[in-house]
């Protein structure tokens, strides 16, 4: 019979994705994602698997948000630059 309790081995902290989001996507959301990913890792190491899973989910959603916002910003900057370049010629 399977247990519904998550354990440390299957809870992802999203630490590396959070660090990537911090430097490459959206700084404020990346900071929050990094904080939650480390909280998830620490809670899992302490045996608090419910808190680890909760922090892991928050880190994942923050990373998704940071990635989407970062892509929107990059696409917007490229479009504005391309438009300015086209007007210059």
From TrEMBL:
Membrane-crossing residues?
Answer: 16-38, 58-80
- Record keywords: Transmembrane included? yes
Alphabetical keyword list: Membrane, Transmembrane, Transmembrane helix
Supply the Pfam families for this chain: CD225
Q: Can you list the GO cellular component terms from the UniProt entry?
A: membrane
- Compartments reported by the entry: Membrane
Cite the InterPro entries for this sequence: CD225/Dispanin, CD225/Dispanin_fam
- Taxonomically, the superkingdom here is Eukaryota
The UniProt entry's sequence similarity note says: Belongs to the CD225/Dispanin family.
Can you say what this protein is called? Answer: Interferon-induced transmembrane protein
């Amino acid at each position: 019979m399977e247990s519904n309790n998550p354990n440390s081995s299957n809870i992802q902290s999203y630490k590396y994705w959070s660090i990537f989001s911090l430097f490459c996507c959206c700084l404020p959301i990346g900071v929050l994602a990094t904080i939650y990913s480390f909280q998830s890792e620490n809670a899992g190491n302490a045996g608090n698997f419910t808190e680890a899973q909760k922090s892991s989910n928050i880190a994942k959603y923050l990373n998704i948000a940071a990635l989407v916002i970062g892509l929107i910003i990059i696409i917007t900057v490229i479009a504005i630059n391309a438009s300015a370049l086209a007007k210059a010629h």
